[in-house]
Amino acid sequence: MAGVGTEIILKFRAIPHVPMHEKWTALITGFSLNEYFSDTQKQGPFRRWEHTHMFASEIVNGREGTLISDLVEYEVGFGVIGTTLEKLIFQRMLHKMFDYRKRALGRIFGSDQTPNTGR
Question: Where are the chain's structural domains?
Fold first, then answer.
């Protein structure tokens, strides 16, 4: 079971269609069952990354479910170059990542209501 202190290692393509992968290591820093978990970047593309995944029971149209929302705070760093990279690469990468999760959750749970990722 994952909890505080767990490391999660991800690999991703920073530049689409280029066969080079970057490594991103996240460290779980906070956890409360059925409420939230938080992670920070230990190694990766950002100067600073803090992400809290939040879960809350909710009834929509008479159906009980779970509202999933996220709070993400990050800094790219590297001055003007970092700002340019954020606009050209990172914003799109983050949107794609959360959009993918939203679609995957919809498929897994067969919901006619798309989950809210609360970006």
Answer: 7-109
Q: How many CA atoms lie within 13 A of 90 on its CB side?
A: 18
Please report the pLDDT score of residue 112 as a whole number.
Answer: 54
Beta-carbon contacts of 7 under 8 Å, excluding residues fewer than 6 positions away, are 25, 26, 27, 28, 42
Closest CA to 41 of 52, 51, 49: 49
- State pLDDT tens for residues 57-116: 999 889 888 899 999 999 999 999 989 988 988 898 889 889 999 999 889 987 655 445
Query: In angstroms, rounded to a whole number, what is the distance separating the alpha carbons of residues 23 and 66?
Result: 31
Place of tokens 């009834």: 59
As a whole number of angstroms, the distance between CA 79 and CA 39 comes to 24
Average pLDDT over residues 4-26: 87
